[in-house]
Design a protein that fits this description.
With 580 residues, the protein is of the alpha/beta class. The chain has three domains: 128 residues, Glucose Oxidase, domain 1 (3-Layer(bba) Sandwich); 108 residues, PtsI, HPr-binding domain (Enzyme I, Chain A, domain 2), CATH 1.10.274; 315 residues, TIM Barrel (Alpha-Beta Barrel). It contains 21 helices and 16 strands. The protein has an eight-stranded mixed sheet. Strands 15-14-13-12-11-10-9-16 form an eight-stranded parallel sheet.
Length: 580
């Protein structure tokens, strides 16, 4: 058994069969063969080895002809291993006696060899492990006949283990079958982490290199609460985690009874509890968990994984389905919030060394106004179907906001000239997620109908921490006193001017922060659908006076660690089962 520590990004426990994707995205299935298929599968294995040998021999000859035998020596080593009778015997034994599929047997055998090399000291030995991975991929490519299986096509329950998952790959996960996910790289605020949390599946990122230790089909445990994964768990560990899963199910049933009840504190203060969604189908989860509306509808999924821009009709169909499903409840639509590097239809930025400080979000939209106007037209068309609000992301200056509103005015004029109905009084707001926006709140209050604090970005810009970098992930925390002060500054500026303000970042979906956020004056929170019942339970179990006491105490504390400890202690007084 091996227990590995990573970064917890989506809570919950998942136990199941591993689906392993390596750097090239090979899925290595664990499949057992019927007895009468063994000989046929051995023949398929031999053909794959022969094809791999032919490929390597061809590469070796090409390099030898162009650069000489010394440079071709690496391929000679590959050939030696591919022809090694001991390797063939080991793989054949797994297929004959254990009835493993050829893919699984190849993966098990070669990864065992690679691990031996990785355990030896010295760069030379580590490079030999990479050679073995190269051989494994070459054989698998010939066995599988394709380089990647789309994750959206997975049709059995699995835990997805990968070096990394792109936002579009994560977006294609089907929560019915993808029970959890783990990546070797990544940080707590990455888009991949946000999507996993939105899907409501346990997720851990930034574990470090571990894929060599696991093969497809192995039993794995993902502990999204503690940020751990357990490989090859023993029976005692499995029993303990299965008990935890059962307790979580019982708690979910208990929280389900809150669905029709309001998020109202014990002293009668009403809290608006909205939900964040990424995809239209998540509306059902919002309704099932009793959300008061949608406080953040991320629209990026329409752009991910495509070679062209979505049409106005594609936008409109997605938006209208959500608005109609929510009926008279508010739906806040955030306009495009992606970097140019994530959109295939746009040329790659020439000097994008730091995408978080580059051409992204509202900056990208204002640079590509035709694309921006198409989206705004679709949102405006959907505004006749329900209570739609428009929100601009990553606003850092007054001029950016005014330019965005000018494009909106152009879109309105387009529709008016075409005789297409829309809500001319649609409410327009902005995200508060950069320090400059907080500092200029006294001016922004005169320009918008509402604000929403996006803590995922505000934390990284306030603390100068790349939220997708595991090496500085320990510095990325909502509990930092500077972050909390910025949030309070924004809340005070907005409420003092009578402009509604909400929060839609990951911070407010964590029950640990609920009392603090209510204590500093927030009365509207937008969380993932899965977090709605738990946050509602906290709201209904406290008074505003108690929350203000908590906020006052936090103001006197000087470090994130101390603040976290204090908030956990206060929550455990309300709910003794809360883990300290």
């Amino acid at each position: 058994m091996e227990r590995l520590q990573g970064i917890a990004v989506s809570p919950g426990i998942a136990i199941g069969e591993a689906l392993v994707l390596d750097n090239e995205g090979f899925r290595i299935p664990r499949r057992f063969l019927p007895r009468d298929a063994v000989e046929e599968e051995l023949e398929r294995l031999n053909l794959a080895f022969e094809a791999a040998v032919a490929e390597v021999e061809h590469n070796r000859q090409q390099v030898a002809d162009q650069l000489g035998d010394d440079y071709a020596a690496i391929f000679s080593a590959h050939l030696q291993m591919l022809r090694d009778p001991r390797l063939h015997e080991e793989i054949e034994e797994m297929i004959r006696s254990r009835h493993y599929s050829p893919e699984y047997a190849v993966s098990r055998a070669l990864r065992r060899y690679a691990k031996v090399f990785q355990s030896l000291k010295g760069q030379y030995m580590a490079e030999r492990a990479n050679d073995i991975f190269d051989i494994e991929k070459r054989i698998l490519r010939n066995l599988l006949g394709r380089s990647r299986e789309e994750l959206s096509q997975v049709t059995s329950p699995v835990l997805v283990l990968a070096h990394n998952l792109t936002p579009s790959e994560t977006a294609n996960l089907n929560p019915e079958f993808a029970l959890g996910m783990v990546t070797e790289v990544g940080g707590p605020g990455s888009h991949t982490a946000i999507v996993a949390e939105g899907l409501g599946i346990p997720a851990v990122v930034g574990v470090g290199l571990f894929l060599v230790d696991v093969s497809g089909g192995d039993t794995v445990i993902i502990d999204g609460d503690q940020g751990q994964i357990v490989l090859h768990p023993d029976e005692e560990t499995l029993a303990r985690y299965r008990h935890e899963v059962e307790e979580q199910r019982n708690l979910a049933v208990k929280l389900g009874t809150l669905r029709e009840l309001p998020a109202e504190t014990m002293d009668g203060q009403s809290i608006q509890l909205l939900a964040n969604i990424e995809f239209p189908y998540e509306v059902k989860q919002c309704q099932e968990r009793g959300a008061d509306g949608i406080g953040l509808y991320r629209t990026e999924f329409l752009y991910l994984g495509r070679d062209d821009d979505p049409s106005e009709e594609t936008h409109f169909e997605s938006y209208s389905s959500v608005v109609q499903a929510m009926k008279d409840k508010p739906v806040v639509m955030r306009t495009l919030d992606l970097g140019a590097d994530k959109m295939r239809s746009l040329p790659d930025p020439e000097d994008e060394r730091n995408p978080f400080l580059g051409l992204r979000s509202i900056r990208l939209a204002l640079r590509n106004r035709d694309l921006f106007r198409i989206q705004l037209r679709a949102i405006l068309r959907a505004s006749t179907l329900g209570e739609v609000r428009i929100m601009f992301p990553l606003i850092s200056t007054i001029m950016e906001l005014r330019q965005a509103r000018m494009v909106l005015a152009d879109a309105m004029e387009d529709l008016e000239e075409a005789g297409i109905p829309f809500d001319r009084d649609v409410k327009v707001g902005m995200m508060v997620e950069v320090p400059s926006a907080v500092i200029m709140m006294d001016r922004f209050v005169e320009e918008v109908d509402f604000f929403s604090i996006g803590t995922n970005d505000l934390i990284q810009y306030c603390l100068a921490v790349d939220r997708s970098n595991k090496d500085v992930a320990n510095l990325y925390t909502a509990a930092d006193p500077a972050v909390i002060r910025m949030i309070e500054m924004a809340v005070n500026a907005a409420t003092g001017s009578g402009v509604p303000i909400s929060m839609c970042g990951q911070m407010c979906g964590d029950p640990m922060y609920t009392m603090l956020l209510l204590g500093i004056g927030l009365r509207s929170l937008s969380v993932t659908p899965a977090a709605v019942p738990e946050v509602k339970r906290v709201c209904r179990s406290v008074t505003i006076e108690k929350c203000e006491e908590v906020a006052e105490r936090v103001r006197s504390l000087e470090s994130a660690r101390v603040i976290k400890t204090y908030l956990k202690e206060e929550l455990s007084k309300v709910f003794p089962e809360f883990p300290l």
